[in-house]
Amino acid sequence: MISEKLEKAFNDQINKELYSEYLYLSMQAYFERLNLKGFVNWMSVQVQEEHAHAMGMFNYLHERGGKVELQAIDKPEIDWESPLAVFEKVLEHEEYVTSRINALMDVAEEVRDRAAISFLDWYLKEQVEEEANVGGVLATLKLIKNDANALLLLDKDLATRTFVAPVIG
To answer: Which residue, of 14, 62, 67, 110, is most buried by count of CB atoms within 10 Å of its CB?
Structure first.
């Protein structure tokens, strides 16, 4: 059985993961409006990943005898200045998510729940990958600046990203 304190922390993180899904869905819609199908694809994969992350925690909480309490999801932004501004926001958001998963790990360590610590280790490693992935796209966008041809080449490259369901835990 999971402690009440850790159960609450997991529920809070499930909300953060679902917000991430919602935020990236909003960004996907933004790129649809710009007709940047590769960027749409990149965000679509991101949406699926965040959903998988939330459901991994959702299922884990059930497996541990905890109670999932879904919370309201905040409304995400819907407009950005540019693709660069979107990816700056993505990196900022992923860094925030990393901080929240670290805080969740702190609670697991505080209540000495080794099973939760082991489970959350996957999420910490995933965040390193997430930040690096976003950082790569962001670095390219900074190089591109206002070069429309380069942006279209990046768009074509981002169209190749595929979703691979993660094995969590």
So the answer is: 14
